[in-house]
Amino acid sequence: KKISDILEKSAPKPGVPADLQNLLSQHFGENRSVIEIEELKLSDSCFLPANDLTHSFSSYLKEICPKWAKLRKNHKEKKSVVMLVICSSALRSLELIKSMTAFKGDCRVLKLFAKHIKIKEQMNMLEKGVFHIGVGTPGRVKALVEQDGLCLNSTKYMILDWNWRDQKLRRMMDIPEIKKETIDLLEMSIIKLCREGSVKLGLF
């Protein structure tokens, strides 16, 4: 059965933290020791309230981040963002940026995807200016972190565009390449930062 056939028949069910936990366990279960898997576990306190499918993107962000204006004002570091939004494509990133207007206020948003934008351009922008929100694909975000263009130490929120479905009804974690890159990004540094309490994860 195609995944889209199954999805067509099932009512959309909002993602919950346990879904991400299970995904990580399945992904790492075969080739990691019990101790290594323990280190990748995220407690419920690492998560923000998940979207129950009633929210617009702006209203969801307002709920999980009521002190945004203050965070935005206090953020002065270059090469970093306060909030990172990860989604499956450049087009979806642009959609989310558009639908964020009621929330973002005066903040500067940076597009972090590969389509039509060279990684060097993004690295230059991050080095020269202060940005508050980065929206993009896991592959490009991962590349920026690896090349020291983006530092995650000031990041407080990482939002995964978890429930949205594309034309084939696939969510970001139903697309093998996106799923792998997202898990790589989480494993690279996000899980550690979540466990230390500096980053919170949200499933939109």
What secondary-structure arrangement, pairings included, does this model have?
Blueprint: H1 3-9, H2 17-29, H3 34-39, H4 57-64, H5 68-74, E1 83-86, H6 90-98, H7 101-104, E2 109-112, H8 119-128, E3 133-136, H9 138-146, E4 157-160, H10 176-196, E5 200-203
Parallel strand pairs: 1-3, 1-4, 2-3, 4-5
Helix pairs in contact: 9-10
What would your notes on this structure say?
The longest helix is centred in the C-terminal third of the chain and has 21 residues. This protein is α/β, with parallel strands linked by helices and 204 residues long. A 5-stranded parallel sheet has the order 2-3-1-4-5, sandwiched between helices. Helix 10 links the parallel strand 4 and strand 5. The protein is globular, with a radius of gyration of 17 Å. 46% of the residues lie in helices and 10% in strands.
CATH architecture: 3-Layer(aba) Sandwich
Strand segment count: 5
How far apart are the first and last residues' alpha carbons, in Å?
Answer: 27 Å
Largest sheet entry: 5 strands, parallel
β-strand percent reads: 5-15%
Fill in the CATH topology.
Rossmann fold
How many domains comprise the coordinates? 1
- Strand order, main sheet: write it out: 2-3-1-4-5
H/E element sequence: HHHHHEHHEHEHEHE
Helix count, per DSSP?
10
Shape: globular
Radius of gyration: 17 Å
List segments where confidence is low: pLDDT < 50 over at least 5 consecutive residues: none
Structural class: alpha/beta
